[in-house]
């Protein structure tokens, strides 16, 4: 099959929310009018300078943007050590782990709560896996004084106790979901059920660039602040664009946020890194590598599923990557070949986690540790004058307990 | 006349009943479906189990899990349908479920299997009219009814799009919510059914939250059909493979209430 190359990679989705064959609005009829309403309201907000100004102001003064662009000298040296002469690329990081709440998730939550208020909604719901999106949602709800209900799989509630407590401190109600395996996809099912029953007053803040149109588009747009800043900062600092962008992918919001502003720069290669868990032949969460297209949670995209279309549980050491699907724009970017996708195992991510701690004094979240593991493999194959820019999308405070456990350390 | 349209032209409202296929086991479903027919159901909805039943309340969620836990496959569902058709040549059978299991092997494959198994119609929860190309053309091409859902949020401007391409009957979801939970106020159902029937040329059946013969009778006064699901699924949950007796009993009570709802009013 030949795939036609579009004139621009940045004008997706079409007006029906399709990225090629992916995306769309596969929701129950009850939600459809609301989803159409959200689409109309988002178009208006996008054109409204006041909306953009308020978003920018909150990102600057509340979230702490722009986040720094950082050249990482010691990891660059470390990875260049065993490279062939002339090889060993410069490693740079976009420091989105320095945001308020410690991850990129807050960018999107600020945008969506402004939309919710614009639409007159008075109650916010969200799903969360590791709890980062739940914390970010609870944060913006506290900031704007809206009641907040977070659906979280019971398994995740048990293994992410600190984030559950954070959400409660911020005034959110955390609802443990016992259906299914009690993880992220079950939390998303339950959030959709709540939304269907409360469409009149409730706004659903989806945490990743997935779900029914226009969510994948609007989450991407709100997260694109990452790539827009990084592109300008890199040009300012080096006078050139990076050669390769690297980002971890669960649903893919930090990756699409970094990639999207660079998609029409032909010299910039991009690498999305999925979670290979125990290995692609075992339990993993790599939807692109190990799944195939299907329909779940409002969109058509690559999913981990069996021959009958039953959804499989994902596995990753990183709860934030532990989802059996991926945002539809990534499925499209893979299919047309604009972005390359790879995967790294739990073990490789753990090693990379420790490497960054020791070489740069930065404790990353386990999600970007997957990106760093890919950088580790990639940097020695590239020239010394080449630049890799990886998205450090979250900090590792939340992960020290599970890392300790995996390293056999009792705290 | 199709089996489905015949079910709605008996001179009385129709009782539409739902159970999840393969619950509690693929082998047990046949006796439960027979109990529905013997109890007097006019249309049988057979649920295709799915790992992520986003529009369903706890009763049907658990039924999906029991079914999948018993190893039910799509092949089992079509086997159950084929055998049902052999036993009951005249009773309309509708598959109800979610998009992914229906489309994973291609819509044409699914439509062809429906035809082979004698399935009259399909209700797909998460394919709204906007995504009709995913399944609608294949079903219509094969002569299988696509039964769409309308809800309290489906306003007058949107209703024609929902009706366009629908056949068999329109399933009016009486509450904005999930299956098996609260029932809508009767006055809101009356208003909505009147509004929809003014535009619809196909029968209108009302479901979600209907549990008792009394509720069913009240709805049958205005609607062409009444759908009952979770209350029957609860009996399967309670009685397992021995559910046929209690299922037949409740179905008979519901059927009596629905079928006679308009007597005396005429």
From TrEMBL, chain A:
GO function terms (MF aspect): tryptophan synthase activity
Pathway annotation from the record: Amino-acid biosynthesis; L-tryptophan biosynthesis; L-tryptophan from chorismate: step 5/5
UniProt-listed InterPro entries: Trp_synth_b_CS, Trp_synth_beta, Trp_synth_beta/beta-like, TrpB-like_PALP, TrpB-like_PALP_sf
EC identifiers of the protein: 4.2.1.20
Reaction(s) catalysed (UniProt annotation): (1S,2R)-1-C-(indol-3-yl)glycerol 3-phosphate + L-serine = D-glyceraldehyde 3-phosphate + L-tryptophan + H2O
Reported cofactor(s): pyridoxal 5'-phosphate
GO cellular component: cytoplasm
Keywords: Amino-acid biosynthesis, Aromatic amino acid biosynthesis, Lyase, Pyridoxal phosphate, Tryptophan biosynthesis
Domain Tryptophan synthase beta chain-like PALP residue range list: 65-394
Modified residues (N6-(pyridoxal phosphate)lysine): 105
Keyword Coiled coil: no
UniProt similarity note: Belongs to the TrpB family.
Assembly and interaction partners: Tetramer of two alpha and two beta chains.
Role description: The beta subunit is responsible for the synthesis of L-tryptophan from indole and L-serine.
Protein name: Tryptophan synthase beta chain
Organism the protein comes from: Novosphingobium hassiacum
Lineage: Bacteria, Pseudomonadati, Pseudomonadota, Alphaproteobacteria, Sphingomonadales
Automatic annotation (TrEMBL), chain B:
Keywords assigned by UniProt, alphabetized: Amino-acid biosynthesis, Aromatic amino acid biosynthesis, Lyase, Tryptophan biosynthesis
EC number: 4.2.1.20
Residues annotated as the enzyme's active site: 45, 56
EC class: lyase
Gene3D superfamilies with a match to the protein in the record: Aldolase class I
Subunit note: Tetramer of two alpha and two beta chains.
Family: Belongs to the TrpA family.
Task performed by this protein: The alpha subunit is responsible for the aldol cleavage of indoleglycerol phosphate to indole and glyceraldehyde 3-phosphate.
Protein name as it appears in the record: Tryptophan synthase alpha chain
Gene this protein is translated from: trpA
């Amino acid at each position: 099959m030949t795939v036609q190359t579009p004139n621009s990679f940045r004008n997706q989705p079409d007006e029906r929310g399709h990225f090629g064959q992916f995306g769309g609005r596969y929701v129950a009829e009850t939600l459809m009018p609301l989803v159409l309403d959200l689409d109309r309201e988002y178009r208006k907000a996008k054109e409204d300078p006041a909306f953009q100004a308020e978003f920018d102001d909150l990102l600057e003064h509340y979230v702490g943007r722009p986040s720094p662009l950082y050249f990482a000298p010691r990891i660059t040296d470390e990875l260049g050590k065993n490279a062939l002469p002339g090889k060993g690329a410069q490693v740079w990081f976009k420091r989105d782990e320095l945001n308020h709440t410690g991850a990129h998730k807050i960018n999107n939550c600020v945008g969506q709560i402004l939309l919710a208020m614009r639409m007159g909604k008075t109650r916010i719901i969200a799903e969360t896996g590791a709890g980062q999106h739940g914390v970010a949602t609870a944060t913006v709800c506290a900031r704007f004084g809206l009641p907040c209900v977070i659906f979280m799989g019971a398994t995740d509630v048990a293994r992410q106790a600190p984030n559950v407590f954070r959400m409660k401190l911020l005034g959110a109600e955390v609802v443990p979901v016992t259906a299914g395996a009690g993880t992220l996809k079950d939390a998303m099912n339950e959030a959709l059920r709540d939304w269907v029953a409360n469409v009149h007053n409730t706004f659903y803040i989806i945490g990743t660039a997935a779900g029914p149109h226009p969510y994948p588009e609007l989450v991407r747009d709100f997260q694109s602040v990452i790539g827009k800043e990084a592109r300008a900062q890199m040009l300012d600092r080096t006078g050139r664009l990076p050669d390769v962008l690297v980002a971890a992918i669960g649903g893919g919001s930090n990756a699409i946020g970094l990639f999207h502003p660079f998609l029409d720069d032909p010299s910039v290669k991009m690498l999305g890194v999925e979670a290979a868990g125990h290995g692609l032949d075992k339990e993993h969460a790599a939807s692109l590598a190990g799944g195939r297209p299907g329909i779940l949670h409002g969109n058509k995209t690559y999913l981990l599923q069996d021959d009958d279309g039953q959804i499989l549980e994902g596995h990753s050491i990183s709860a934030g990557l532990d989802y059996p699907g991926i945002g539809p724009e990534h499925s499209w970017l893979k299919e047309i070949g604009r972005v390359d996708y790879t995967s790294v195992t739990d073990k490789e991510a753990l090693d990379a986690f420790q490497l960054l701690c020791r070489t740069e004094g930065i404790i990353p979240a386990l999600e970007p540790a997957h990106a760093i593991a890919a950088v580790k493999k990639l940097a020695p194959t590239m020239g010394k004058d080449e630049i890799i820019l990886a998205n450090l999308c979250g900090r590792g405070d939340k992960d020290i307990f599970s890392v300790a456990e995996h390293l056999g350390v009792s705290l | 006349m199709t089996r489905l349209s015949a079910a709605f032209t008996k001179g009385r409202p129709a009782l539409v009943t739902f159970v999840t296929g393969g619950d509690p086991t693929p082998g047990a479903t046949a006796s439960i479906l027979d109990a529905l027919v013997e109890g007097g159901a006019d249309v049988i909805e057979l649920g295709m189990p799915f790992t992520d039943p986003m529009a369903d309340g706890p009763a049907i969620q658990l039924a999906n899990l029991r079914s999948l836990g018993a190893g039910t496959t799509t092949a089992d569902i079509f086997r159950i349908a084929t055998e049902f058709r052999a036993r009951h040549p005249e009773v309309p059978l509708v598959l109800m479920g979610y998009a992914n299991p229906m489309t994973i092997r291609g819509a044409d494959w699914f439509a062809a299997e429906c035809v082979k198994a004698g399935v009259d119609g399909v209700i797909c929860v998460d394919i709204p009219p906007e995504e009709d190309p995913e399944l609608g053309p294949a079903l219509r091409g094969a002569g299988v009814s696509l039964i769409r859902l309308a809800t309290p949020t489906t306003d007058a401007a949107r209703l024609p799009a929902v009706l366009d391409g629908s056949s068999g009957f329109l399933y009016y979801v009486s509450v904005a919510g999930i299956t098996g939970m609260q029932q809508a106020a009767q006055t809101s159902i009356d208003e909505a059914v009147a509004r929809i029937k003014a535009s619809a040329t196909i029968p209108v059946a009302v479901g979600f939250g209907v549990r008792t013969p009394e509720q069913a009778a009240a709805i049958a006064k205005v609607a062409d059909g009444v759908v009952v699901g979770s209350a029957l699924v609860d009996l399967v949950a309670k009685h397992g493979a021995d559910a046929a007796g209690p299922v037949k009993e409740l179905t008979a009570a519901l059927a009596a209430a629905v079928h006679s709802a308009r007597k005396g009013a005429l």
